[in-house]
Amino acid sequence: MRIGLITGEYPPDQGGVGDFTHHLARGLIDLGHEVHVITTARPSISPSASPPVVHRAIRRWGWGCWRTVLRVAQENGLEVLNLQYQAAAYGMHPAIHFPPRRTLRPLLVVTFHDLRVPYLFPKAGPLRRWVVYHLARSADGVIATNDEDFQRLLTEARPRRLALIPIGSNIPCAPPCEYDRAAERARWGVGPDDLLLGYFGFLNESKGGEELVRALALLVERGIPAYLLMVGGQVGTSDPTNQAYAERVMGLIRELGLEGRVHWTGYTTPETVSAGLLATDVCVLPYQDGISFRRGTLHACLTHGRAIVTTQPVVPLPQVRDGENMLLVPPRDPQVLADAVLHLYRNPDLRARLERGAAALAAEFTWERIARRTAAFLGEIMGR
After folding, report:
1. What percent of the chain has pLDDT over 90?
2. Once rounded to an integer, what is the mean pLDDT over residues 125-129?
3. Residue 347 scores a pLDDT above 90
4. Has residue 344 got a pLDDT over 60?
5. If you average pLDDT over residues 68-94, what whole number do you get?
6. Sheet containing 141-144: order of strands
């Protein structure tokens, strides 16, 4: 197949959707497909010499964006387009929700990384949700990346064809060749008997950064030698609301006197991210909307076999076993979060069990499996 992947962000842009698109493209190429990426123009970025072919053709994701997409598709004989949807990646502009009618374009499959609605105008209300479902109904096929969105799309949008295909980890478990765990911890001023909490991903209100900081403060108040390593970049490329939230979190750290206990790696290489994750004792992911397999940050922690404390899912997730592959707590409760982390700190056997369970669960979300399922669905849409 000649496949076009449409995305508002693509490496070296910072963002999970861009990283996902890169890994998916590589997986599809390994299966023998021709892949083109259609993304945002960045004059400062040089074209890649290796596949996939990256067309940095879209200057702005406004009302003319589909015209450019169709031009690239026609020039390269693309048979199917796979739009990676996340409203922030397209500047929260509504244009991406209105693809041309079927007679004017190749087959279109939309992968919904979330169902966040775009900005239209003040007090747009239900119209914002309508445009998201309009995109789902306009496509020839729809992919949901998690169970919650799958159920909502099935009942509310009712697309022509719908598949559930999860995402995987954007960060492989591959630290630098000279990696030494004790040395990595010492780099951040953390001793062998100290408790190092890990957080991975951009700061965003839905990810519970403030709850995490307050939980750290509670642990320190109890005399626990606890530290927090914030792994990766703070805010990313696409979502401007992340910056305001990051400032709130940093203000809270200063207010609670935790500057010496919170360390930041900053945006860095996958190898350095991997080293940071492996140095932690517990990865804490207090999502306010509950654990979901749409979270690349969760997949990274699973891939690294970390003991994970996270929040209870909104819908049942059969793969998640509390006390076996992660520890679940209610959202928005720093006290309970701190209690769960302390329980793991004092129970190394439980921590080891969670680490084994996380690594086993990660095996269900490999990029080879994701690429094969995606290719099969695209082929089904094409009648192959």
Report:
1. 78
2. 68
3. yes
4. yes
5. 94
6. 53-58, 34-40, 2-6, 80-85, 107-112, 141-144, 162-164
Average pLDDT rounded to a whole number, residues 253-273: 94
Tokens of 33: 């497909």
Residue 2, pLDDT above cutoff 80:
yes
pLDDT of residue 285: 97
Q: Does residue 120 register a pLDDT over 60?
A: no
Q: What percent of the chain has pLDDT over 70?
A: 95
Q: What is the 3-state secondary structure (H, E, C) of the chain?
A: CEEEEECCCCCCCCCHHHHHHHHHHHHHHHCCCEEEEEEECCCCCCCCCCCCEEEEEECCCCCCHHHHHHHHHHHCCCCEEEEEECHHHHCCCHHHHCCCCHHHCCEEEEEECCCCCCCCCCCCCHHHHHHHHHHHHHCCEEEECCHHHHHHHHHHHCCCCEEECCCCCCCCCCCCCCCCHHHHHHHCCCCCCCEEEEEECCCCHHHCHHHHHHHHHHHHHCCCCEEEEEEECCCCCCCCHHHHHHHHHHHHHHHCCCHHHEEEEECCCHHHHHHHHHHCCEEEECCCCCCCCCCHHHHHHHHCCCCEEEECCCCCCCCCCECCCEEEECCCCHHHHHHHHHHHHCCHHHHHHHHHHHHHHHHHHCHHHHHHHHHHHHHHHCCC
Q: Is 244 exposed, middle or buried (CB count within 10 Å of its CB: 0-12, 13-18, 19+)?
A: exposed
Q: Does the pLDDT of residue 295 top 60, yes or no?
A: yes
Domains of the chain: 2-168+366-381 (3.40.50.2000), 181-365 (3.40.50.2000)
Q: Which two tokens stand for residue 383?
A: 């009648």
- Rg of the chain's alpha carbons, rounded to an integer? 21
Can you tell me the distance from the alpha carbon of 273 to that of 267, in angstroms, rounded to the nearest whole number? 9
